């Protein structure tokens, strides 16, 4: 049982929950950027949490299935078809051997996910099936899919069947301006109070440099507080003594181009970081695209933990309703 | 110095021993993270020691990040600030480096618009702002004493190397004003007070001074050192590195061994004592080098 890749779209990769335990030697987690869409997709097709799925961006792939199976498309708002017939999103769908899944033009969001009963069966590398293209490890041959690839599928889905559906009110919407909740801190003291305020007041525009490594934004100029430079940092105002970067942290080299680091990002470096996007909201970020507007909304640690708690409870409810 | 505790979102705790780099700050971070690892606290997912700080990835469903901070403060008070009375079993590694090489030169000349000084090279700039009369004298200083790997990361296998010399002999340079979009594989760079080797081609903001002929990342584990360590990265946190200057012939010789999958790093075991080093830097370095090359 396998999937034949006829057209990979723009960049389609195999992803799971991520590669953990090696951050200290420089392995970022990788894994699905929109964790909610990924987890719900697996639940819809009867997979255990953690099965590998496909993540596409902007353009969906064209995929032929060699055997009968069950799939679910989640994430971006994008028309999906099986042999030309439109199929519902956020719902498990039966696929017959020889049928082809294709996608139309993106209507909202940025990243569709394709979950398949049994999961994508690629070897685990350092404990994960996620693709980390920068060093060519994990996923399918360490790279994005290409036409002609054949992906093996697992066979351990539990009672996969068509017609499981996520209730409408649980389907995320893709608003015109995405709001990302941010815990301000780390090296935020390096920015003037005015600049920090400007940071959260600005509707930032996603630049073309927006991918699994990170998203760069434009929209305002931020200023650093003058200082006596600590030894080891380097003299540029944005320089700090090199340290670890949390996933989701925001840095502003040069003061004009904030960068939010994502799941394939560098694990550390020497640019000042002004805070961290809460983990749940990386899902929202993953569904924004070049030209979209984004606002950063400050929250405190208790709110960040409450947001996480609510998301975990919602996923558990969905998993139990869908099983 | 006063330790600063902060939260990197809901998943990370960031602890800065000092905003400035120093060996005492680093050794404090090392002592705390060693103790933290030994305690195996539930909910501590990953421990990332770094130069003058460290970071912990936390599972907030198992331990509240504020409770974790309290545990970290307890450990800090137990090991004591500036604790350097311990020994690290490590190794010293001989790492050939060609400084002022043609490959990084070609790349850095293409990114002058992102540099502090568009008129010269990164080496000229580093020599000038550190008060050296010539690039040669600057290059001699860079290769004169070994370095300690005080942080790993950025991408898999990149070592941040802090030169084991008293502060007045340490080199310091800023990172590029805006990072380059390209850095050659195995480039030898310098940023802040740290030397690095870039494991793979990619973006980067460090000043480019040279090139290492030997791989430090090997995804297929083809070279015997990597296969033996069963790791795609060669260096480890706490390694001592001696950068040995080679010319183009020496560089090519290593590249041939790499092509034949026969490259081996020269290493020797070291018992590194922070206290002994701080008391006698030059004597400690001489003894380590003697162990490596004798």
UniProtKB/TrEMBL annotation, chain A:
Transmembrane segments: none annotated. SUPFAM superfamilies: Cyclophilin-like. Keywords: ATP-binding, Hydrolase, Nucleotide-binding. InterPro entries: CT_A_B (IPR003778), Cyclophilin-like_dom_sf (IPR029000), PxpC (IPR052708). The keyword Hydrolase applies. It comes from the Bacteria. This is Biotin-dependent carboxyltransferase family protein. It comes from Actinomycetospora termitidis.
TrEMBL record, chain B:
Residues 3-227 form the Carboxyltransferase domain. The keyword rRNA-binding does not apply. It comes from the Bacteria. It holds the Pfam family CT_C_D. InterPro entries: CT_C_D, Cyclophilin-like_dom_sf, PxpB. Keywords: ATP-binding, Hydrolase, Nucleotide-binding. PANTHER family: 5-OXOPROLINASE SUBUNIT B (PTHR34698:SF2). This is Carboxyltransferase domain-containing protein. It comes from Actinomycetospora termitidis.
């Amino acid at each position: 049982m396998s999937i034949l890749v006829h057209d990979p779209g723009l960049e389609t990769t195999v992803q799971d929950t991520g590669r953990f335990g090696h951050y200290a030697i420089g392995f970022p987690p990788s894994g699905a950027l929109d964790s909610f869409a990924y987890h719900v997709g697996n639940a819809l097709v009867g997979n255990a949490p953690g099965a590998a799925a496909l993540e596409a961006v902007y353009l969906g792939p064209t995929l032929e299935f060699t055997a009968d199976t069950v799939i679910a498309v989640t994430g971006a708002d994008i028309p999906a078809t099986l042999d030309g017939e439109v199929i519902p999103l956020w719902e498990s769908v039966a696929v017959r051997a020889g049928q082809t899944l294709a996608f139309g033009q993106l209507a909202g969001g940025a990243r569709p996910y394709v979950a398949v009963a049994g999961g994508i069966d690629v070897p685990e590398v350092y404990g994960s099936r996620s693709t980390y293209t920068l060093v060519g490890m994990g996923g399918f041959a360490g790279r994005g899919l290409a036409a002609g690839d054949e992906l093996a599928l697992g066979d351990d889905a539990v009672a996969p069947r068509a017609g499981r559906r996520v209730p409408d009110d649980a389907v995320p919407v893709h608003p015109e301006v995405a709001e990302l909740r941010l815990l301000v801190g780390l090296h935020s003291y390096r920015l003037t109070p005015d600049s920090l305020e400007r940071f959260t007041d600005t509707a930032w525009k996603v630049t073309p440099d927006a991918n699994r490594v990170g998203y760069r934004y434009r929209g305002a100029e931020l200023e650093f507080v003058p200082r006596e430079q600590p030894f080891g940092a380097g003299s540029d105002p944005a320089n700090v003594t090199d340290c670890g970067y949390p996933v989701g942290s925001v840095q502003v080299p040069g003061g004009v181009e904030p960068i939010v680091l994502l799941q394939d990002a560098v694990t550390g470096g020497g640019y000042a970081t002004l805070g961290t996007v809460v983990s749940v909201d990386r899902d929202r970020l993953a569904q924004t695209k070049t030209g979209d507007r984004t606002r950063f909304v400050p929250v405190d640690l208790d709110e960040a933990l409450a947001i996480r708690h609510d998301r975990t409870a919602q996923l558990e409810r969905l998993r139990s309703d869908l099983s | 110095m006063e330790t600063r505790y902060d939260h990197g979102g809901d998943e990370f705790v960031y602890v800065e021993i000092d905003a400035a780099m120093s060996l005492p700050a680093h050794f404090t971070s090392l002592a705390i993270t060693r103790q933290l690892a030994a305690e195996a606290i539930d909910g501590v997912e990953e421990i990332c020691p770094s130069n003058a700080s460290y970071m912990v990835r936390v599972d907030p469903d198992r331990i509240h990040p504020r409770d974790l901070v309290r545990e970290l403060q307890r450990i800090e008070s137990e090991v004591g600030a500036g604790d350097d009375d311990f020994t690290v079993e490590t190794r010293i590694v001989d790492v050939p480096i060609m400084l002022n090489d043609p490959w990084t030169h070609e790349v850095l000349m293409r990114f002058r618009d992102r540099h502090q000084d568009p008129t010269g090279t990164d080496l000229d700039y580093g020599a000038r702002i550190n008060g050296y009369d010539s690039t040669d004298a600057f290059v001699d200083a860079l290769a004169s004493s070994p370095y300690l790997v005080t942080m790993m990361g950025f991408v898999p296998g990149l070592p941040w190397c802090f030169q084991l010399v008293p502060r007045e002999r340490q080199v310091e340079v800023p990172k590029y004003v805006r990072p380059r979009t390209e850095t050659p594989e195995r480039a030898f760079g310098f940023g802040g007070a740290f030397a690095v080797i870039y494991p793979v081609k990619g973006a980067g903001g460090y000043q480019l001074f040279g090139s290492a002929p030997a791989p430090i990342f090997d995804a297929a584990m083809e070279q015997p050192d990597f296969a033996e360590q069963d790791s795609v990265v060669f260096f480890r946190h706490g390694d001592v590195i001696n950068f040995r200057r080679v010319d183009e012939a020496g560089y090519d010789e290593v590249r041939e061994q790499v092509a034949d999958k026969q490259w081996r790093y020269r290493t020797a075991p070291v018992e590194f004592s922070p206290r002994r080093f701080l008391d006698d830097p030059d004597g400690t370095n001489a003894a380590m080098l003697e162990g490596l090359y004798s």
